[in-house]
Design brief:
Number of helices: 5
Order of helices and strands: HHHHH
Shape: elongated
Helix content: over 70%
Structural class: mainly alpha
Largest sheet: none
Organism: Carnobacterium viridans
InterPro entries: DUF3899
Keywords: Membrane, Transmembrane, Transmembrane helix
Protein name: DUF3899 domain-containing protein
Distance between the termini: 48 Å
Number of domains: 1
Length: about 120
C-alpha cells in the first residue's frame, strides 16, 4: 500500500515533533514553548506556500519570458529563424502550493490557540 503525504498527516507529524522537541529541550510542556515551536513550522510552510502562490498567479510570467528570450537571443544570435517556445512560469509551478498553505495554516491556528491559552490560563 502506497503511503501518501496528506496535509493532515504532515500537520500531525510536525505537531508531534514540536511537542517531542519541547519535552527533550525544556523538560516540560507549556503553552509558551508550544507557541514558539509551532510558529517556526508555520512560518516555514506559509512562506513556501505564499511564494508558490505568487509564482502561480502569473505575476512573474512576463519577466520569466523576457529573461528566457534574452538568453535565447544571446545563445542563438539575433537573426535566428528558430521560434522561442516558453511555457509560462505559472503553468510550471502549478497548484502544489495549496499543500503548504494548508499545513502552515493549521500550524498557525495551533500557535494562536496556545498563545491564547498561555495568556488566559498560565499567566
Amino acid at each position: 500500500m502506497k503511503q501518501t503525504f496528506t496535509p493532515i498527516r504532515i500537520f500531525l507529524t510536525i505537531l508531534f515533533l514540536c511537542i517531542l522537541f519541547e519535552l527533550i529541550i525544556y523538560g516540560e510542556l507549556s503553552f509558551y514553548h508550544t507557541t514558539n515551536l509551532t510558529f517556526y513550522g508555520a512560518a516555514l510552510f506559509l512562506i513556501l506556500g505564499l511564494f508558490g502562490a505568487t509564482l502561480s498567479s502569473g505575476f512573474f510570467d512576463f519577466f520569466n519570458y523576457s529573461m528566457r528570450k534574452a538568453a535565447f537571443n544571446i545563445r542563438k544570435g539575433r537573426n535566428s529563424d528558430e521560434e522561442l517556445h516558453v511555457k509560462p512560469l505559472s503553468k510550471v509551478v502549478g497548484k502544489g502550493y495549496h499543500f503548504f498553505l494548508k499545513v502552515g495554516s493549521a500550524l498557525l491556528i495551533v500557535c494562536v490557540l496556545t498563545l491564547l491559552a498561555y495568556y488566559l490560563i498560565e499567566r
